[in-house]
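Progress report, Aim 2. The chain analyzed during this reporting quarter is listed below.
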Amino acid sequence: MPPIKILLSILVCSIVIFYTSSLLASVKLIAEIGQPAADFPENYVYWKVDNPSIGASGHIAFAGAADTSVRATANNTSAVWAGFPGNLKAIIKENDSPSGFPEGISFDSVIGLNMVVTHSGHVAFNAQFKGNVSSVNDKGLLAFVNRQAHLVLRTGDQAPGFPEGVVIRNIQDFVFTDAGMLIQAEVAGINSLGWGIWFWDLSSLTPIQSPINGCNFTGINNLSINQSGEGVFSALLLNSSGSFCNPARSLFKWHDGTTKVILSEGAAVPGMANTIFTLGLYPLKATITDQSEIIFTAVLKDTVSSKTQSSVWVAQNDGKLDLLVLDGEILADDPTERLENPKIYPYLESTNRGLSILVASRETERRTALLLGEPRSTQPYTSLEEAGLSQLSTLALLGDPPPGLGDSWFFAILTNQVAINKTGQFAFSSLIANSSNLVESQQISIWRGKNSLDMELVANTGMTLFVNEQIRTLKEIGNINRASNAYKNGGSTVGGSITQFSDRGEIIFTGILSEGSRGIFLITDGEQEKRIFTLAEQLFPELFSPANPRNQNAEGYLYRYYADTNSYIGIRGGEVFVLGEQFGPGIQRINTIENTIKFLEDWTSTAGQ
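Predicted structure tokens for the chain:
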């Protein structure tokens, strides 16, 4: 076999000393304050960047502002950028009045954190308006579908489906998929306040009606919608005199003009005598998947003893209820510990088949376990006293060593930041530390995987990036799952809420570089890097052994060190490098990532002939 340095194009680079750190994957800087602002005049830079979201297929969006310098304010212009990384467009700028806007009003800025990007790249968010407006009608819900702006709903306008004179007072929540949008708003008449919920089919609004004549929705929350346009929400039902209807509080499903009750307050728990569902003790969380399962939290109550216990269930499309987790269950990985979550499971994210990741408490500590799993096919308990062994697997426990980092490292804090996608991948953030130096070793880290055995550390504070021919250090990492309102977070690629985790495994987040500059960062799926490492190890074991050492980070390189052959493969700035005596002096450039993959795949085909 010809030497690899003859087969590949080699460029000798300046020597850089590799050193070990506890990381990693490929992280890219998408936008940074002071960097040229995409789709703005040449002399404009990002003045502010914030609130990034990602769609299931990798489209991103974020809000911010641009100006002629980071210290300038004279030309400060709010905007929303969207598109694939590297091809961003400003879909709306301050003072724009897109087609269909009322005369005399224009866009001012984004309101709140709930910016949703759909699978096809549609974008929606709440906006502040300026111009011919007052405090009554200066806010609205905007959607950009195929780059065309739609003013979906505006405060102060007549509430669709309500009597004349009842107007939109406050847009409280929305969820959005390619099938449409579910919207919740507070409405007001001359002497009354109320609630409304609507479905937007990408062109027109349809009011969603109560399934019981003479009863109206109030206390609406926990909106969710899937790719088929099936919507889920919880609400109370009141009659015209203000009294509760029967049922009072329920979990509802809407589709094609029909609203059905999925579960009501006081309904019997399957298989448990004298036990009922109570939906109003704590905020209910519900998500509908693209397979029409509904994952929801509920407090169970024994009507004889009055004992209560929190739980999570999956309502199947045929109406069957499957238990996911019940308080008091024993962790399979630690039979001395029982789950204890008196406030239900607010940090729960779910996907198809009811697969869920959740932050759970143990009896001896709070929020100390990350669990993953699917619901039970049969309900094993006949009472709240029988909670036994949980079927969920433990991803991480407070104090345990993270995978691949050695026994001196441990999970110091398991945050509430969890996410999951339709391929079954999960992501979570944590604080890790080394017992040999507790203070200086602390790092905020992001992990990704499909089970506890393949979890990989994909980003952490202290990692180095290679940006514009410079080595930069990531000093702070922001949330990977932010609250869309008081009742829910956005960490799943089903349900139509905000998410920072794509179905391709990409994660978008805000961060701060060591120079104090704020930016938006993207953790890539890592497939190209993995392909290079794997093919090189398979084709040239005499150069890169043993196979599959852990990924590491230094000087902006993502690299692997092969102890048996004392060699390195490093990837930085879209290019591939090698280091070792067998390649010549110093670090040797191979080629771009794309060309290197092509060479290795061609060599694989040739070797197989």
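DSSP finds three helices and 42 strands in the chain. The mean pLDDT is 89. These observations will guide the mutagenesis work planned for the next reporting period.
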